[in-house]
Amino acid sequence: MEQRLSFITLAVADLARSRAFYVHGLGWTPIFDGADVIMLPVAERLVLSLWSVAGFAAEVGEAPAPGVAPITLSHNVATPTEVDAVLAEAAALDAPVSAGRPRAWGGYSGYFSDPDGFRWEIAVNPGETGAFVLPGAGSADAATASSSA
Description:
The radius of gyration is 17 Å and the shape is globular. It is built from five helices and eight strands. The longest helix has 13 residues. By secondary structure, it is α/β, with parallel strands linked by helices.
């Protein structure tokens, strides 16, 4: 199996509420918007799929477990000012927000939760890893070339 990810699928309690948050609130553009699912391109060849709980259960074969998912989704930016701006945008949508702050690992990050409690980390990640995940940084091509050698 290739080392890559194509979809991240989240089961959401109220698809209309998620559409209002992601599409109308954050301004993201779906590549597919159906009765049970919204698909949002979030990176080159990576889609965030927001699926109604009923649609998710029908596809997967069981309903998701209740409670807060033990994962975070991370959106990296170049500066602490950008972190704070994204967190302010989420706060304006009435999302619960944990303010950005310097981290022991050398970066700067804060968190917000979407309407279903999925936590988004907004972060500045220093060094090669940070450069790898930012669009246009060029390190992804270098890393791919060096791992292929």
